[in-house]
Amino acid sequence: MIKSKHINLIIALTLLIAVVFTTVFMFNPQLFGIVKESAQPEYASKVFNKDNIISMDINVDEEDWNEMLENATDKEYISCDITINGTTFYSVGIRPKGNSSLSMVANDDTTDRFSFKIEFDHYVKHQSCFGLDKMTINNIYSDSTYMKEYLSYDLMNSMGISTPLYSYADVKVNGEDWGFYLAVEALEESFAYRNFGPTYGMLYKPESMEMGRNDKDDNQERRNVQPNNEDQGNAQQNNEDQENIQRENGQQPFNPQQGNFGEKMGAEGSGGGSDLKYIDDDVDSYPNIFDNSVFDSKKSDYKRVIKALKNLNDGTDLEKYIDVDEVLRYFAVNTVLVNLDSYVSNMKHNYYLYEKDGQLSILPWDYNLSFAGFQSGNASSAVNFPIDTPVSGVELSERPLIAKLLEVGEYKDKYHQYIQDILDDYFNNGKFEDTIDKLDSQISEYVENDASAFYTYEEYLKGLSALKEFGKLRAQSIEGQLNGTIPSTTDEQSENQDKLIDSSGINLSDLGSQGGMKGENRQPGNMPDMNVMKKAQDIIGSVDDSELTEEQIQQLKDLGLTEEQIEMMKNMKNSNREGGDTDRNQRPPDDRAELKTNSDTTAQNTEIIDENLWIIGISAVSLVISLIFVMTFKRKRVEQ
Question: Which keywords does the record carry (predicted)?
């Protein structure tokens, strides 16, 4: 029997443990394997409800709108009011976005169908769309099916990858039909909080040297919103560490050097870190990563990334420095999708790098050129894209994030298993075709009436048939590569062409490809083939800021390029030199001149944290009162 003099102490210790447990549980439920339903923000259901089409009306001054469109490559924000599914948000920032797609549209006088970035708190501090700080609406460029990006994110999400939310949007401008778009959650604070909680880590959007150089304005703002990490508490003391961040039919095997569109622009040999190779310990050696930081960052943050890259490239302590399982899942999906406008090509972009506690993972972004829309050569090379050398225009060793993992037998087996899971759960059971049919029933009417469509409705229907056929043949090839009946590397496929899946019935241009738009003279086939494009880029790439000489122009014409194509390629180069699409360097007007501080996260995040603090506070006060009562209460003896 416990003596009375020990009861008070035991009760006090029990209550103290309860207080500590409650505090830890409320702030970090993930430590107990619990994800609260309330962790999904309001915008997940109110905006990105995939069962519905987003209704979006942009109300904007006509003069401002037309000026922005006329100077789209400047990517300057203007103010507008946006009504989303009946709710209006005032003084919202909007601007054109994109790289080559932006240049293509800007140089086409028949369309102004740009993609746009929408930032809800650009002019009004703390404003959000049901907790969402920023979104993009993508113009579905180079995609006759309207589904490439949607299906790509759907597959990423089904494989457990932290994926941005996405949904179709019917967009109007000042009440007039503008176009049918795909809305996508931006990878910024609200995304990070939704996926990783309030103690989320650092996020970067690596770009190659010639890509992504001027589109960094809102990142400059947002990087002053520092997430909680091990350095946050010492932000002021570490002031000296603060960095000033200013940065398409025949049968033939796949050829990794084929189709180097954008090679000069991608600047494969330029280094800079976006290939995730370890260079040295100098932060300045990795401008293509650290100059594209999404959040406020410091030298100590960069050092953690560099240390992880060194261990990755050395192949040491991989599971400590790389989220191996997540990365294998990502590349399994990316390989199945034949998504080459990404890390795996000479472009080495269109991905996000997430770092938490020194461990790296990779997040998906920009999939309008998936399903072999970029550098895929022909239908055979796309359908039979090798799963064990899943790169384009480069050697596998040039992409250490996948190469180093595939060197480990256990990891390669797991990668193969994830690819098999994708086949079993998404293709072989009919889900892929069922999803296409379901989406078609949902969006068909919108596509048919799309006011600014790049493709005709007939091309859309033709594209859907081609997409289904591509998925079927791609799955057959992968199945054969997994069981050994079809070669799974580039070299093996080159030596065993007779074993490849026959894809002569597919025309990749039916799916839409880079440079492809609707109508006469706007098909992908109207663009020069990849070898011609590469030669043309060699000529244009030799020119710095000066104009092309008559001799150079004649050389380009001798290659078969028209004056319009020459001008388009020049403008693409200039746009890529100036910048890509990771906002920065713009400043809000005077009413928003003050940069955000650590406490200035989205309103959604603040509300959730405040709610937790109230619960904890009330619980703590109640427990303290109980503790005082127990410690001071004198029990009366009961006489027998």
Answer: Capsid protein, Membrane, Transmembrane, Transmembrane helix, Virion
